[in-house]
Automatic annotation (TrEMBL):
Encoding gene per record: Mettl27
Record-linked Pfam families: Methyltransf_11
Protein name: MET27 protein
Domain Methyltransferase type per the UniProt entry, residue ranges: 77-170
PANTHER family: METHYLTRANSFERASE (PTHR43591), METHYLTRANSFERASE-LIKE PROTEIN 27 (PTHR43591:SF101)
Signal peptide: none
GO MF annotations in UniProt: S-adenosylmethionine-dependent methyltransferase activity
Protein's organism: Probosciger aterrimus (Palm cockatoo)
Organism domain of life: Eukaryota
């Protein structure tokens, strides 16, 4: 990107920040989406600071709250890890064994430079299986990537596959107008898995000031912010079949 492409944060969102955020939610095809993320990697953290993006903090806090065991030994997979914002928050809460995956090489490079991950792999969730064995992780997070044109709700069972029975999944999505159709689809998928006995909901928390809205029409009750939601689920242990 051009030098000076990361403007200082002002009260209102700089136009360049709005454009970069809008671009990744604009329904680009996947190759184009990852190219956008690669290009955004250099000023991503500055931009999300300007957005007052609270999802990484809220998700990590929710997971830590639900997590019964000492987190230091827990193996955790951070899907769509980006530059490592979620890892930083999890690390602060005692999680030390972090693996990350993302579709963008540029983002992974930034994540690698944090030194917070033991393992980082490139993977496009929704297009391919996660490069991990079944029942491998004590916890799985997907923060910020469950949205229109990004990770499809059909990929949720793949997250469950790599989670240990009794393990936790922490997912977030946005509640702004242009994501409502996706959110309804996601919630239907989450509820169906619960109906099948695959997992149990531990928490669903709607948060009003999730991040600054990039346009007036996306804003919740003209606050200038959009709202979002954190879900925490626990994978059900598979019970042995009764004999006889």
């Amino acid at each position: 990107g051009a030098r000076g492409a990361c403007p200082a944060r002002g009260m209102r969102l700089p136009a360049a920040v709005r454009e970069r955020v809008a671009a990744v939610h604009g329904g680009a095809g996947l190759p184009e989406l990852f190219r956008l993320y690669d290009g955004w990697a250099a000023c991503y953290e500055q931009d999300v600071a300007a957005l007052e993006y609270r999802a990484p903090h809220l998700a990590a806090a929710s997971l830590a709250f639900a997590f019964p065991a000492p987190p230091a030994e827990a193996r955790l997979l951070d899907v769509a890890c980006g530059t490592g914002l979620v890892a930083r928050e999890l690390h602060r809460r005692g999680f030390r064994c972090l693996h990350g995956m993302d579709g963008s090489a540029g983002m992974l490079e930034r994540a690698r430079s944090t030194g917070l991950y033991r393992e980082l792999r490139q993977c496009v969730l929704g297009r391919e299986a996660l490069p991990a064995p079944a029942e491998h992780y004590d916890a799985v997070t997907v923060v910020g990537a469950l949205g229109e044109g990004q990770v499809p709700s059909a990929a949720v069972p793949e997250l469950l596959r790599v989670t240990k029975p009794g393990g936790f999944l922490c997912l977030t999505t946005r509640s702004n107008p242009s994501n409502l159709r996706y959110k309804a689809e996601l919630e239907a998928a989450l509820q169906e898995l619960e109906r099948q006995g695959a997992w149990q909901q531990v928490l669903a928390q709607e948060v009003e000031r999730w991040e600054k809205a990039t346009s007036e029409k996306e804003s919740t009750r003209s606050t200038g912010y959009i709202s979002g939601v954190v879900y925490v689920y626990r994978k059900c242990p598979v019970l042995p079949l009764e004999e006889g």
